Amino acid sequence: MRRVRPGTTSRGGAGSRAAGEERGLTSVATGDSVAGGESVDLPRLWHITLSVSGEQAPLKEVRRALEQLAHDHPFLLTSRYADDHAEIRYWEEARDLHDAAAVALRLWGEHRQSAGLPPWEIVGLEVIDRATYHQRIAEGYGPPPASPVGVHPF
After folding, report:
1. Which end of the chain is more exposed for a tag (fewer CB within 10 A), N or C?
2. Average pLDDT score, the chain
3. In angstroms, rounded to a whole number, what is the distance separating the alpha carbons of residues 83 and 61?
4. How many angstroms separate the CA atoms of 73 and 129, rounded?
5. Helices 59-72 and 97-115: crossing angle, nearest 10°?
6. 54-to-69, 79, 118 alpha-carbon distances in Å
7. What is the rounded CA–CA span in Å between residue 127 and residue 121?
8. Buried b (16+ CB within 10 A) or exposed e, 48-73
9. Are 127 and 46 spatial neighbours (Cβ–Cβ below 8 Å)?
10. How does pLDDT run across 12-22, given as a tens digit for each residue?
11. Could you report the per-residue pLDDT of 35-77, keeping only the tens digit for each?
12. Neighbours of 78 (CB within 10 A)
């Protein structure tokens, strides 16, 4: 079965465009109605800060594990670490805060074996929407932008 965007057809016809004609872009905000009056919940971006802590582990192993996590989870912005705790910051796309938090709370456990992460527990979680993140940055009291991106010691 082929999927086709609404208003277009797969082989010419009423919704097709002439050669070289560009299609105009439209957007629908979260919770807006589309044709027919049905409500649509589109995913939004959420800034996640996940803090973990536990027994001391060799720094080289912690760094290697966080680098593997960054490879496995490409939206990872930055990780900071010490021998007994770490902080991971990244963007998550989710329908709402509850979904973003649920995914974030599963991240460490789901990648623990594949990335070789230490057996630490989650001790903190912050989930904020994109607008709040940018507002905090603009007002000077939010977390500094993830620069440089990557895995770094505290």
Report:
1. N
2. 79
3. 9
4. 20
5. 120
6. 18, 16, 8
7. 18
8. bbbbbeeeebeeeebbebbebbbeee
9. yes
10. 444 444 454 44
11. 554 455 789 999 999 999 999 999 999 999 999 999 988 777 8
12. 21
pTM: 0.70
- As given in the structure block, the two tokens for residue 55 are 């027994």
- Comparing CA positions, the residue from 107, 102, 63 lying closest to residue 89 is 107
Partners of 153 in the β-ladder: 81
* Residues forming a β-bridge with 128: 47
pLDDT (tens digit per residue) in 85-96: 999 999 999 999
Strands 150-153 vs 85-94: parallel, antiparallel or unpaired:
unpaired
Q: Are the CB atoms for 69 and 117 separated by under 8 Å?
A: yes
DSSP string of 75-130? TEEEEEE-SSEEEEEEEEEESSHHHHHHHHHHHHHHHHHHHT--SPEEEEEEEEEH
- Region 123-149: mean pLDDT is 85
Sequence-distant (6+) residues with CB within 8 A of 65 are 115, 116, 117, 118
- Domain 44-153 fold: Alpha-Beta Plaits (3.30.70)
Report DSSP letters for 14-69, one per residue: TT---TTPPPPP----TT-B-TTS-B----EEEEEEEEEE-S---HHHHHHHHHHH
